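Minimal example, chain plus zinc ion.
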Amino acid sequence: MKGVLEWRLAAWVWRFGEHEFMGFSIAFSNEFSYNFSMLEFLIAEVPKTRGELEFELQRVRGEIEIRELYFSQMAAELQRRDRNEDSEVSDKTTIDWLRHNCRMTQQAAADRIHVGEKLAAMPRTEDAFYNGLIGFQHVAVMARTAVAVEEKFDEAALLPLAMKYSPGKFYHLSLRYRHTVQAKKVAEEQANLADQNFLKLATSEDGCLMVNGVFDPVSGAAIRSAIEPLAKPMGMHDYRDRPKRLADAFFELTTKNLTVSMQVTSSMETLLGLVGAEGAENEFSVPISSKSVERWACDSTLSRIMLKESVPIDVGRAERVLKGPRRRALMARDKHCQWPGCERPASWCDGHHLVHWINGGETELKNMVLLCRRHHRMVHEGDWQLVKTDEGYAPIAPSYFSPWLPRGPN
Ligand SMILES: [Zn+2]
Ligand SMILES: [Zn+2]
């Protein structure tokens, strides 16, 4: 190995607090080096005080980072040889070798190759690294930028930022820098990324929809801007974790203001929720529970429900539909979801029948209340009850849900 690569005796000073640590990276043979590290590991005592522990963590991190730089130089050398041996070979070959044999991610492997390649073009960065002013991740971002902007790379413009900010923040700033020197190329890259957007929809065995996709940064930011405000905790008794809140927000966003023209075939027994009734059917779903059919029918989300006997129940009949002046009156009265603590605005809400029209309830204001999609679902499928009190509405948890929650208005 010696002689092929310049195996440098590196000295660096790692400064922190009042301490100063001087370390040396010495060219041991691989075997000796390994034994040496293992020996150090075995005889090491866990530092006793917090100060000693912090000192040791930073000392070891410094050693690892120096080794990372050495690794990067060898990775770049491997790539140089791969290229020399076969002019057709792509950079990906070396990256793949590193991925499989050194068990690294693609980005980590590419970063090391780029650091090794670009180190000579970044002498001040290398100095700052050996002086402990920046870490290896900063050097990797510098190298990534140098590869991207090629001859426009200006080490002096970036190094002060690397010394000031964390690697994550520095990466963000390096993208800004890239835009200043090659706006057209950045725009092209973003457009290329947008061309690669995809969304896969699949149905699992239990009928759930599985969503998997990738969006370019700009589309992704727009989607997040739309979905994040809807994914905040809402109302009393919101015990959902963030993934659950995001899923609910995604559903809410994609179905907002939609008249879902979904045809469901159901028996009258299913619609009435009678014991022994089979599930309703829809082309995209496994059999649907009568509770869900009941909720959809509550605000006439379904355009129509077809009975098994092919007799359509027109859920759009005037007296059941909450449209026009009656919907506007309900929106003006309630303004937002009436679940205590929930302020999802009226345009995002369903009109819920306190007594369902299936059971003879009227589509009149006194029998209606605005509920957002989540709280509407909780009432129909979740067996929560909403009781009208002098102060508004009080939710009552189903008995099996949480024994510690109130069983009456509180
Ligand atoms: Zn309802
Ligand atoms: Zn609500």
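Residues 235, 337, 339, 342, 344, 371-372, 374-375 surround zinc ion (ligand 2) (CB under 6 Å). Residues 262-317 form one domain.
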